[in-house]
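tool=predict chain=A
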Amino acid sequence: MRTKLFRACVTMIAALAIASLLTISVVAQSVDDPPTPTSGLHSLSLQRADAPESHYSILIPRGYSVSKPVPLVLALHFAVGGGNAAGAGRDLIQILIAPALGELGAIIIAPDSVRGDWSSPENETAVNALLDMVEARYSVDKKRIVVTGFSMGGAGSWHFGEKFPERYSAVIPVAGRPPASSSGWRLPVLAIHSRDDQVVPFAPTEARISELQKLGVNAKVIALTGITHFETYRFRDALRQTIPWLREVWK
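tool=predict ok
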C-alpha cells in the first residue's frame, strides 16, 4: 500500500513539474518572440522597450527554409466591437487571407491593433516594429512585401502604403476607404470593393483608382456585386485573383 502511495505521489509530482515547464515555455514564447520558425499558425507577442506589448499572429508556409527568402504579407484586420482586438489578426488570417493567398508561399503577419484605427501613431509604431522584427528573424524577400487588409484594415493598407511606400511592393485594400487625395501615391495598388457595400461606399475607391491610373500608376479595382460589407469570407475569390497581378509586379 505504501509503495502504491509513493508511486502515486511521484507521478503527481512529475506531472506538476511537466505542467510547470509547459507554462514557462508558453510565456517564454510570448516574450522571446518568435519561437523556432516552424510551419503553421502561431499567436505571439512582441515586447518593445518603453511601449505596450503588441500581439500578433504569424503564418509560416509549409516548406519554409531560412535558405530561401519568401514573400511577406502584412494583413490588417477589421474594426472590432468594444475596442478589444485580441485575436482579430488571427481571425483575419483564417477567414480571408490564408484561404485566398496561401499559394503565394508567403509568411503572413497579422498584428492586433493597439486601441483602434491603424493610422494612429501608436499603431504605426507597433506595425513598423513588428515588420522590423520579422525581416530580421525570418528569411524574407524585401522586394516582395505587400500590405493588405479588410474594412478598417483596408483603409489601413491604403494608409501604410501612402505613408511608408519604401517598405512595400504593392497594396491590396479590401473594402477599405481610400485616402482623400491621390497626390504623391506611387505604389502599385489593386483595390477590391463591392458595389453593394452598405458601410464603406464603392464610389470613392473607384474614383481614387481612376485618378491614379491617369497619373500613370499601376492601379486597378476588382468591382464586386451582391456582397455586403460584413461578408468577409465572400471576398476570398477576388483576393485570390490578385495573385497573377502580384507576380507581374514582382517580376
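The chain has two domains: 1-32, 36-249. The CA atoms of residues 48 and 54 lie 8 Å apart.
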